[in-house]
Structure formats: C-alpha cells, structure tokens
Amino acid sequence: MEKHHGIKLDTEKMIIGIDDTDSNEGMCTTYLGALLLEELQEYGTVEALPLLVRLNPTIPYKTRGNAAVALKLKTDCPEKVIAHVTSRIGELARMECEKTNPGAVFILEKDYETLKPVLMSFLEEAVKEVIEIDNAKDLISELGIASKSFKNGRGIIGALAACGAMLNPEKWDCTFEYLAYRQKEKWGTQRDVDKDSFFEADRETYPETWDTVDLTNRLVVCVPRSGDPVLFGIRGENPEIVSKAAALIRAEPVERFAVYRTNQGTDMHLLPAQNIAEIRDMHSYRLEGTVSTAPKTIEGGHVIFAVLDREGDEIDCAAFEPTKNFRYLIRKLVPGDRVILSGSVTSGTLNIEKIELKALTPVYREENPKCPECGKHMKSAGQGQGFRCKKCGTMSLSKVKYEAERDLEPGLYEVPPCARRHLAKPLARDKRQDIRLHPAR
C-alpha cells in the first residue's frame, strides 16, 4: 500500500477516484461508490452527482465493464475520508481475483486548477489508448497526488481518469445511469424482476432512455447476469428521465440506488483513422473504406468481410454472433459499397458497433429476354442458338442485363441493444439530420 503524498489536512474540498475493486464473479466498483456516497456524509457533504467513467473497452486485463468512479466531497477532515475510503476498499474489493488490483487517488481543492488540463488529457488517453501502470504511478509522483494502491495498483489508472472527468465536467459529452443495488443476502442468486415492467418503462421514456430492452430480440438488457450487486441500470439523457423509468420497474427490494453521471453512450472511445496502416489492436476507430470481399458466415455464426482504404490496404471486419439480426444487414453488402465503420480492433479484426452506408454499388443480373409479343420469358433454343418464345416464335440472341434492386438503403445502422458496448453511442442519441438513421429497435 502506498503512502500519502503531499496532503494538506486543512483543505475543505476533495475529489476521490476509485477503480478495479470488482471481479468477473462479483462486486462492483459503482456499488462501492454508492455506499461511500452515504457513508462519507459523516465526514462532510457530497457536492455533485458521482461519476462513472468507462475506459478503453479493449483492455485485456479488465474485469467486466472497465468502469471507474469519482466522488466530490466538501469536508473538514480529509485524512479521515482517506482512511475510511481505504478501509472500505480493503474490506469490499475482490482481492482474491488475479485481475482485481484496486487503486484510489485523492485530489485536493488547492490543486484543482493545476491538475485540470493534465488529468483531462489523462482521461482521454485512458478511454482511447493503452496506459501502463508505471506511467500512472510516475504521474502521481510527479504531481504529488495522494494515492493508495493494492496489489499491483492498476486501478490508479482508472481512478486518475475518473478524477479528470470530475475536474472537467464541461469538456466531455455526458449521459446518466440510475443503478439499483440488491440486498446483500441476494447477491449471487437469480434476480427477481418483472420483465414486462422494463418494456413498459421503455415505452414511456424512449428515446430519452435507451438500452433498457431489445425490442427485436425481446430481451431485457439492463439487468446483469453476473453475481454482482447491481439489480438493474437505466441509461438516459438526464437524471429525471432515468429516475422516472426506474420508478416504473417492478422487482425485488432494493438496498440502495445511485444516479451516476457517465460517459456511456458517447463514442468517446473512437479515434479517427485516416488509413488502415495506422490502426492498432486494443484501440477503437471510425474508418471509411470500400467493401472489398463479399461477407461470409464462418463457424459460430460470425460474419466476416474485408474493407479496402485509398492506399490499397485491407482490414477484416466482423459482425460477431452476439450482434444477432445486425448480421442480416452485413450479409447484404457487396464489394464496391462505400462504408464508414465504427468499432474496436482485436487480433487485427474490427468488431463493428455501427456502420454508415455512404454509397451502394450497382448490382447487375442477367435474365432470359422477354417476348415482345406476349411478354413471357423466352426459353433457350439450344446451346449457342439464343432464345425463342415457344408460343410466338420470336427470337433473341442473348440474355438481358439489368440493374437489380437491392434490399438495402444508405444510412446509419447499429448493432441491437443486446450487443451494444457501454461507450457506443446509440442512434437514439444521434442528432444528425443529413442521413437516415436505422435504430436497432
């Protein structure tokens, strides 16, 4: 555990960042945040909504959703706050999990202005890039930031990023999530929820809320399946609308809830790719190119095709099986279609989150000519002898080429809610007027 760095104990305001307390099997960093919201009132006043920040979704050593939290507090006893937060992390974090490496940082008011630009850059890097633990530790040492780390301390990366978000609320697009938590004795058991109530809540509040349900696949998507404390989470444009939707849910008793300000549903993770040569694994991009191979379905139901850029480089793109009905759209692509793809790259393959069809290439078919007398299609008159209408006796030398109608139209399409990543911006939030949207409803 690291020692405190440069703390002035008479300060009145502070920001607390926490990350990496959960595991694949249970616990949730947002639950710890919600718990601390209540407990820290013993030491002061919470000044703003808590923050939930999703980081780079491609990081292989993440536990589940790669989320960090931040709290803003007014207090006369920051040393007691630090001790309490540290103690609660030690009690609740799933330390037995190899991937769980908690970290916490504490930013004091006297340092707000100095750290604002530095930690905003760090936030953007943590969402878009790959940061090593040593880089975060060096930054903490260089800036004299108070910190605590457990095991290898990887959580200080997310903790610093969450503090950067809290320091710069006007610098990033935000959404909100209402998170309801289960009573502790229920953790690890099947959740008791009325599925119909989620569809009712969606009808009442969509499109100001989204990803509550997946209408096409008839699934409730805001209820997790793992053994963590979350009962459900409602995402939306403002605190009022997510609270309205949550009030319509019928489910087992709730221990507590919290409304978080988040970067979910913002596309904050996407980098613009000028060409395929600059694309790297463990990053997410928006890439324009031309379909160069026909989509094919491989084992497991995944649909793969290639896209070519202006320099002649190719990259494989995939609509994986969990994207369900989205794969039907992808199978309709043909070489020559102009597309803009959004998604994350792993093992050299771009996992599609959204696709904009910019221009569809014409597709031509051939058919037997029609008889000018009766309008029926002629039959082959024999090899090399052209075509003849048996009824009228009319003749034609060759088949007729025509442009086929494509069961597809230009526009912006997305994967269904059941396959959406936390950071991917749903079309329900897209305010563009220049193209037709095709929400996955």
Give the topology.
Blueprint: E1 13-19, H1 29-39, E2 44-46, E3 51-54, E4 67-75, H2 78-92, E5 103-108, H3 112-128, H4 133-143, E6 146-149, H5 155-167, E7 175-182, H6 195-205, E8 209-210, E9 213-214, E10 219-220, E11 230-236, H7 239-247, E12 254-262, E13 270-273, E14 283-291, E15 296-297, E16 303-308, E17 314-319, H8 326-331, E18 338-346, E19 349-359, E20 364-367, E21 379-380, E22 387-388, E23 395-396, E24 400-403, E25 411-414, E26 437-438
Parallel strand pairs: 3-12, 13-14, 17-19, 25-26
Antiparallel strand pairs: 1-4, 1-5, 2-4, 3-4, 5-6, 7-11, 7-12, 8-11, 9-10, 14-16, 14-18, 15-16, 16-17, 18-19, 19-25, 20-24, 21-22, 22-23
CATH structural fold name of the largest domain: Alpha-Beta Plaits
State the major sheet.
Answer: 10 strands, mixed
User: Which parts are unreliable, with pLDDT below 50 for 5 consecutive residues or more?
Assistant: 1-9
Shape: elongated
Number of helices: 8
Q: What is the total tally of β strands?
A: 26
Radius of gyration: 27 Å
Mean pLDDT: 93
CATH architecture of the largest domain: 2-Layer Sandwich
What's the CATH C level of the largest domain? Alpha Beta
Report the β-strand fraction as a percent range.
25-35%
Beginning-to-end CA distance, first to last residue: 48 Å
